[in-house]
Amino acid sequence: MQLRYNFRVYPTSRQQHELAKAFGCARVVFNDGLRARQEAREQGLPYVSDGELSKRVITEAKRTAERAWLGEVSVVVLQQALADLTVAYRNFFASATGKRRGRKVAPPRFRSRKDNRQAIRFTANARFRVLDNGRLRLPKIGNLRVVWSRHLPAEPSSVTIIRDAAGRYFASFVVQAADETLPVTGSEVGIDLGLTHFAVLSDGTKVAAPKFLRRAARKLKRLQQGLSRKQRGSKNRKKAVVTVARAHARVADTRRDWQHKLSTTIIRDNQAVYVEDLCVAGLGRTRLAKSVHDAGWAGFTAMLEYKAARYGRTFTRVDRFFPSTRMCSQCGRINDKMTLNVRAWDCPCGAAHDRDINAAINVLAAGRAESLNDRGAHIRPAPVPAARREAVIHPDAARSTRSAEGIPVP
Questions:
Q1: pLDDT for residue 12 is more than 70
Q2: Which of 390, 370, 388, 389 shows the shortest CA–CA distance to 380?
């Protein structure tokens, strides 16, 4: 499977200048391609093909005085910008026609130099390579110093240079890695995600919610207040923007590191993992939006999914409409809806339940049922063949019925 490895890079002042030019050229080519296709649509012309678009906004544009500076960067960077535009259009068309599942995808928009994230991509034909001294050689940029936290398992097929809102630079390598199957274990676990406890496992384990954003709220508030006092357009305001972005990046990095450790532990210890499919987008529009985004459920479940696929584990999402909280895990009775302040309840069958542990047990049972169904097992009762006298209409049936009702039979 394809994996992405991110490493911090530290370009020099000259290399930062060259990267800024590459970011700008890729952005201009992307916007020119988007504008060309929008104008063709407004004029009723056919959709501009990829080859024609590349010829118009890259090859021919370099010969003009207005776009002659496009030749100062690697052409692969410009071609990959158009490839990103093509992928954006494909996703939009697939979403509009119903071929793409999930939330609706908006049409591509113009990129801005003020966007928080700037990125360029080099593929194998750009002839980038990692040198023996650990430096990353990029065409027309130079040798970047990389902080290697681990070894790449194979030769990378592409590398993306990213500059985030905090002014940090990263090299993101795409590598084709072989699956690493872990030893088989006999344990399976159902997970109920929440806010008081980040995760409650079906075996009774409760993982407290770290609430990284809440813990950093006081510092973030102070930095945001300082930013609001700075004059717009001043250098001090630019510095304050970077300071706030670094504080938020520290919170995001801490959350991501914690989720990676927890997801790795769960995948290593369990052969199958079942999680309820939550509507995070809908919960993010409620009064609990800040806590929901602070929890980061979507990122955590995505980690569980790809790690399960890599290490030979089973991962299943249980339907979000499954009544895991209201169903008794002992007798299967579904009770009325309960408010969030009800953390424990008793079933008429005599079972006493902890709300979250009971939900995790039900998620485990539902996940097992769905997993068996994926393997071809009969979850519903098999059809029973009807008796011959019930399934066949005899030739004399109509004659006998009409005679019984007093209707003359010819």
A1: yes
A2: 370
